[in-house]
Amino acid sequence: MKITGLIVLLNTLVIASTATASGEHSGGHHGDEIAIGMPGKAATVTRTINIEMTDAMRFTPSNITAKKGETIKFIVRNAGKLKHEMVLGTEKDLQEHYEVMKKSPEMEHADANMVTVSPGKTGEIIWRFTKAGKVGFACLQPGHYDAGMKGAVVVGGKVMATATFAADAPQEKPTAPQLASASNAMTEGEIRKVDKDNKKITIKHGEIKNLDMPGMTMVFQVKDVAILDSVKAGDKIKFSAEKSGGAIIVTAINVIVPSN
Ligand SMILES: [Cu+2]
Are 31 and 56 in contact (CB under 8 A)? Predict the structure, then answer.
């Protein structure tokens, strides 16, 4: 009986560990951690840094050091008369995003690694720096990045040259020709917020092919407020978006998986 019991126990352990391993691999999703770190929680903030943005196209301070694992709250004040923003990212991501912004300056962001601040206002980012290396930040308003509105957070720790900057490695861009029908294709997304009063909806979305826009979280206007009646935060959707009158508007929403 003793031996049988032990064999059963061993079998259980083997099954359990196999399940864990395969679960991790098939999931392939470790929270929201990306190359530059992950969104931080207010409760675990270890340091607050005040940053000023000005129309001289500068961040002050622009060079910041952090410890690996540190969660920093950036209180970002716009001291200028123009709209500015602070976006954390690898240099490659910032440059790519900047090109998108030049094409679509009407974009309104809602991702955790960025904050857009109106003149005279203050915004904040809470970010956890999980990897040693250099995390850039920049204002991606058209013209501002080119004018040198950028800075960096240097995260201390043992720098693993190969791993830390893996995200900067050149990636093969898909070169498949875009079909004409792509302009009518719907984009996948998940609703983050519904704001009927302002006719706005915040969507974490995949690539919007007809607008040549990569996946991110954005605030959209809606063509008709009635389409917000049957949707709620958490719904997984397919939606259509287009540019119109200086804004990016959502013209249709199909709920694929409603939230509970
Ligand atoms: Cu700016």
Answer: no
pTM (2 decimals)? 0.66
CATH 2.40.50.320, the chain: domain bounds? 181-257
| 186 CA distance to ligand 1 middle (Å) | 32
CA torsion 62-68-74-78 (nearest 10°) is 20
How far is ligand 1, taken at its centre, from the CA of residue 83, in Å? 6
Q: Which CATH superfamily is domain 38-159 in?
A: Cupredoxins -  blue copper proteins (2.60.40.420)
Distance 144 CA to ligand 1 centre (A): 5
CA of 60 to the centre of ligand 1 (A): 12
Which uninterrupted H or E stretch holds 240? Answer: strand 236-244
Which CATH homologous superfamily contains domain 181-257?
Copper binding periplasmic protein CusF (2.40.50.320)
Segments of the chain assigned to CATH 2.60.40.420: 38-159
CA of 147 to the centre of ligand 1 (A): 9
How far apart are the C-alpha atoms of 225 and 147, rounded to whole Å? Answer: 39
Question: What does the pLDDT profile of the chain (260 residues) look like in tens digits?
Answer: 455 544 444 444 444 443 433 333 333 344 456 789 999 999 999 999 999 999 999 999 999 999 999 999 999 999 999 999 999 999 999 999 999 988 888 888 889 999 999 999 999 999 999 999 999 999 999 999 999 999 999 999 754 444 333 344 444 444 444 444 444 678 999 999 999 988 999 999 988 888 888 888 888 889 888 889 889 999 999 988 888 877 889 988 988 899 98
Beta partners for 222?
250
